[in-house]
Amino acid sequence: MNQLNTNLSEEQPNSMVDKAVGSLRWEVSQIQSLLDLPFNDLIHRAQLTHREHHDANAVQLSTLISVKTGGCPEDCGYCPQAARYHTEVENQEMLSLDEVVETAQAAKNKGASRFCMGAAWRGPKQRDIDKMTEMISAVKSLGLETCATLGMLKPGQAEQLGKAGLDYYNHNLDTAPEYYDEIITTRNYQDRLNTLQEVRSAGINVCCGGIVGMGETRHTRAGLIAQLANLEPYPESVPINNLVQVEGTPLHGTESIDPFEFVRTIAAARITMPKAMVRLSAGRQEMSEAVQALCFLAGANSIFYGDKLLTTDNPETTRDRALLEKLGLHAM
Question: Which CATH class is domain 3-331?
Answer without folding.
Answer: alpha beta
